[in-house]
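Progress narrative, Year 2. Work on EamA domain-containing protein from Verminephrobacter eiseniae advanced from sequence curation to structure prediction during this period.
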Amino acid sequence: MRGDHLNLVIGVAAAIFATFSWSLNFLSPYVTGHYSAYDFIGVRFVFAGALGLLFVAMHWTQVCRLRVGEMALAFCLGMVGYVGYLACIMGGVIYAGPVITPAFLGLVPILTAVIGNATNKTLPWTKLIALVALAACGLCLTNLEHFARGERSAGTPLLIGVCFSLSAVAAWLIFSVFNQRAFERNPQLHPIAWTGLMMTGAGVGTLLLIPLGLQWSVFNFPTLGFGWSNAGHLYMWALSLAVVSSFGGAWAWNIASKRLPMVLTGQLISVETLFAATFGLLVQQRLPAANEIVGLLMILAGAIGAVRLVFAPSV
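Result:
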């Protein structure tokens, strides 16, 4: 029982670190300068792919122990969970504006927790629904200001934006479900080797999407140039997030997926909102509004409640 309890502690700590590292992505709009978010994302995932190849080479022995199907799954999860997810978010923002897509993404922790409990019942449904409702209300309160001032460019096809937004939710759910099942089927999966394969897939996916981005004219590199004098800061930030967020976040999440039930990892995803809001407040140099305080506390309470319920049998 003590070993199970330690596994839960390590898993929760890893999940919280993963959400923290992923929340650093919300700083990217403040560091791009004259370059676009698409320039930043493209460079970042090319770096991530190169780092992924390095990790694969460093842990080649562990990689060789994987079946071909497992290697292909990790590769595809990188394309779906990294590139596909972000590409869908971009499409949602382009066609539906900056409000609709974040609103749909608020469904991710809720649906992940529900799917996890439906697949492998861990918590009583009555208690889970109460915790999910608490987190959902918290997410709504936290984003209240965005909904209130939301606006959308006239004439843009809203339906396309909604489809992109739903596709982003689907991409993350696919990533979460299949990544969790991979560790359930093979507990011996090496987290760094698995993460390296995913990052390699993300790098390849990015290279495949660059021609589409050029066609849509979303990149500023062709006009601003690739030189270090202009883009050096972008390269440094992209490399930093590739290491801390793309690798560190995915590696920590794989450790959590290996040790925690999906219903708990799903609930812990909502903690990313807490970290992201904190970074946003620091950048804006302001105190949180009343609705933001209440919303963040509700999110935190929902996550803590889920952790306590999962820990209870082992304590």
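Residues 68-105 form the longest helix (38 residues). Residues 2-311 form one domain.
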